[in-house]
Every structure is written in C-alpha cells, then in structure tokens.
Amino acid sequence: MTNILISGGGVAGSTLAFWLRRHGFTPTVVERAPSLRDGGYKIDIRGAALEVVDRMGLSDEVRRHGTDMRIARFVDARGRERATMSADLFGGREGDDVEIMRGDLARILHEATRDDVEHLFGDSITGMEETPEGVRVTFETAPPRTFDLVVGADGLHSTVRELAFGEESRFVHDLGHYISIFTVPNHLGLDRTEMMHPAPGRSAGMYSTRGAADAKALFLFSSPPMAYDRRDVAGQKKLLAEAFAGTGWEVPRLLEAMEDAPDFYLDSISQVRMDHWSSGRVVLLGDAAYGPSPASGQGTSLALVGAYVLAGSLAAARGDHRAAFAAYERDMRHFAEENQKLAEGNLKGMVLTSPGRIRFQMLMLRLMPHLPGRNSMIKRVTEPIRRAASAITLKDYRP
C-alpha cells in the first residue's frame, strides 16, 4: 500500500507528505488553490510540535522566519494607549515557543517536499468510491485515479470529510464568534508591534512582523451563525463592515483598505468534533478532523503532530490501514481534546462583552507589572497552554 492522496497542501498536508515520503510511501497532494497559499495570520508552534519540526530538520529555518514580535499595545477609540504587555505574554508563549506567519511555514514545508512529492495545484476532489483496488477519486480537472488511501487535510470546510462522513453541520460547532484577517498598508509604521482596540463584542487589531513592508488587520466579533456564500468575498466584506460600523480607532481606515486586500479572509471561529476520524480507506487530519479553532492558538501544532503520528502509524502497521488508523486515533485523541479545551476560555479574553469588562481588563494589565505574585499570575495564564501543547508523548517513528 504505497499510493496515498492528500487533499490539502497546507501545514497538515505538507507535513504528512514529508513523512510519508521518508517512510517509503508515494504521496500526491491536491490543492484547490492555483499555487502555494501565501498570507494568513501569526501562528504558534509549541510543545510536541516543536519536536516534530526538529525531527524534520527544519528548526533553524523556522526560527529564522520567526515574527520577532516585541510588544502589544491596547488603545481606546481615540487611539490613546490604555495598557501594554510583552508580545510573548500576549500570545501565551514561553521558553522555546516559536511564532511564525502561516505563509512562511507553509512555504518552508512545501520546499521540503516539492522535489519528491507530486502536487496538483488548482484542482480538488469531486468524488470518491471505494473499490477492490483502493479508492477511485474524481477531480474537477484531472482525470480519475485510484489510490490506496485518501487523507483529508483540507481544513474546517473539508470536502473529503463531507464526501466520506456526511454534512459539515454534523461536525462543525460554531463558538459564537467570527474572525477576519487581511493585508493592509502599514500606515502606522508598526515595527514588530501589535495594536488592539477592544470594544464590546468586538475587537480590532493591526500588527507588522519582522521585516514586513505591510501589516495585517485582524478583526474578531461575536455573532450568531451568519449565512453567507464562502465564495462571495464582496458579500463577506459587507458583513465585516456592518459588524464594525461605528467602531473608532483606525477601524474605518482599515475597512477602507479591506477593499484592495489581496488575501481577505473571514470565517466562523468553530471547532470540529468527531467520534472517529476514519472511514474505510479515508482518514482525516488536522482541522478537518479536530480543528480547535483559531481561539485555541493550537491548530498548527495539532496539524504538525497529527501528520507525524499518522505517517508513523501507517509505517508501523506495514500496510494494514485499519490498524494504522486505530493507532493514530488512539495516540492523538487526548492531545486533540486537551487543545480544543483552550478555545472557549481564550475567547472570553479576546472579545469582551461590556465596557465594564474592558475597563477592568485594561486596569489589570496596567497593574500587573507592579502586583506581588506577578510571576505566579503569568504562570496561571501560560500553564494551561503549555500543558495542552505537551499532552502527548511522541514515539520515534523516524526511518
């Protein structure tokens, strides 16, 4: 059993392709985008995921592309500074944790696989049928092919999951919030600085990382589920503008720049919860199987670790995909659930519900450097993240 189709060329799919190739399998990656996806937001690599990156021999390259963020500043509607904190504390990072732009990590992983893995860009799966020979897959443009296994690493709105397991609504659980991010001119001249403006039920931010000529605009807001077409970018921009109508600080200027953004993104903050991640010769990976939502800060780490465990399980099972999938789920289930638990608690601090809560949070941030027991307070913030990020003991699957 050697030919494995991976749907999705992001972090999960590229990491899986890397390890499958080194275990002697023949992976093929199909990616809907016409080329490698650039852009995205800052992501963190922690705990067990750092060990995976190290075992890939990519630690130095990843660290070279770290964001090097220095400080987070909180401002009111008139742009007046109300509190500051270190960027690492703001992101819940400690020790060797790495923050990197998603696009940079995706490129590093792709470059590690592009010479020995087949990539089908600008295409996607339209159908799957199990046959005695394997899984017969049809594509939007490429001719049908048969693979021994199919892996859905195609994100929150996974096509593979819908084809193999059923409607998305059965597995994707809305956490009552939305996120949007896109590239904007760095008109504030930010240098490794993040600025946030909290308002009741919504939060807007802007940041620029090391060496970046531009900046990212970030919007978070609470909302009941919204009905919209994911292909209708203009409609999504209208929804975001309506959600932040009347918000102060730099929000009107950021929304104006949104119209020219080449990488606009908006989606619900949701989790994927499933009783099992495989069906026959099809298995899910990363956000498609156990997406913890951006609020957890752990989606990338789960993708890296999950890909390593799945590839290693397939190699250890020596062709028995049922045994491999069972081992993968057994080893990953607790890790995935522990990281998913972070999301709802984090959301409470990311989007505050009232002016009173905002004032209290700003007061606590201003007082923290002067309070007795400051280090203990910081540890209470970072400890749940550290514990979840290390909630798995990695087997040594390296060939």
Automatic annotation (TrEMBL):
Pfam families: FAD_binding_3 (PF01494). Residues 2-338 form the FAD-binding domain. InterPro entries: FAD-bd, FAD/NAD-bd_sf, FAD_aromatic-hydroxylase. It comes from the Bacteria. This is FAD-dependent oxidoreductase. It comes from Microbispora corallina. The lineage of its organism: Bacteria, Bacillati, Actinomycetota, Actinomycetes, Streptosporangiales.
